């Protein structure tokens, strides 16, 4: 008797692919009495319609957390002994399901993971590959015989429930690269085996615009960034020079072999270089509730050669976005005049740009009231409360907290507030330039994006509050540094349904003083731990972008 099984298909916004996948899966599943579960990570009516048309169970609860989280929801939704995972962009071969089930029945419990051939199938556009560099989508071909293997890829992967019970579910924080690998490494370290079944094959498909070379390169670039981050987390990432050497080799591969994989691998390599330059490594320290789960993954300090390279990248991005920046400035010029209160504390540690800030704010079309206080031995938020108490009683359209070491771009305030209001943000911050000191990777600028809705906005160096948020959050708690306060704000925003986010179109420079340069880091952490005790707050692993406006 064959063991019970369920087929889990995570998907997001690709009903045309899903329809094709289910058309090949559903008949085999029906013949063998296997349930098909579609887990929609970006709920759409069209996806539900396709799933139900093929007799699949549709799940959308908890959507938006990524591929591994979707896989985990599928596992929890079934009590089957075997969990079969595939992607929404495959077509399974005849006999695929039976080969998997029979393979599991024939193998001992120690063999807890199974896979099979994955063949690339690129349609609608010509793609010439020389064979030396594989294909631009995941493939596997280990020959005509069954054999043990190192990895099973998510487009064709079956796992025993007992294996999940042994080593846990997939890591929901991983996605886009390394998502299956990390779990399978845990499984092998526990003594488990992975088996390749030659008769359980699938085709991995790209069609329509997705099969254009430009689209394949864009996906490869994104995967390159994720792959670099995954290597960093495992302390296996090569240095920048090695990454650049690989990039040059990839560029040469295309013309040398007349191979379309040249530009694809070059795009992947470039994504790795971007991640090397612009993002700090993922922290490896486990998160402990109330101790470090609200802290950033690194200091975010940028210096030396890396800072120079990132400054060049910033200038290049400025040139690319010149037209869109001017369009934003024209749109902002026609916006209603706002009443804005700007609060800043003059540091007693040097490195102030207050004179330049005052001049830039003075060029705004809005009515701007700038209030400045000297640090005078008090903490930042203690001083901010004193400034607020001394301000006019009238209501402001925006209250902006500004550190005095921030380099504001030309036309900053008008464009920033226009973009924030356009996105409906209650709490907003401008993105950091790539070469800025920025502790939170999510706050660095993104090319081609005007603004993003996020689950988190930091306490500085520039934070703006619309009226609803200002009434609820100001005056601030009597804190010196305010660490942890942004995590608390994020939780309140989620509870009240406030949109919060980052304006990428007006990136600021923060290069004069690194984060925590004016106070002991240990004191800031201790203050935050005490403040957050008993209060709701957003954990570091809950920080993400939830919407983009271009």
TrEMBL record:
For the Glycosyltransferase 2-like domain, which residue ranges apply? 7-167
Which Pfam families is this protein grouped with?
Glycos_transf_2
Kindly give the InterPro entries that the UniProt entry links to this protein.
Glyco_trans_2-like, Nucleotide-diphossugar_trans
Protein keywords: Glycosyltransferase, Transferase
Record-level Gene Ontology MF annotations: glycosyltransferase activity
Q: In its keyword annotation, does this UniProt entry include Cytoplasm?
A: no
Identify its protein family.
Belongs to the glycosyltransferase 2 family.
User: Would you tell me the protein name for this molecule?
Assistant: Unannotated protein
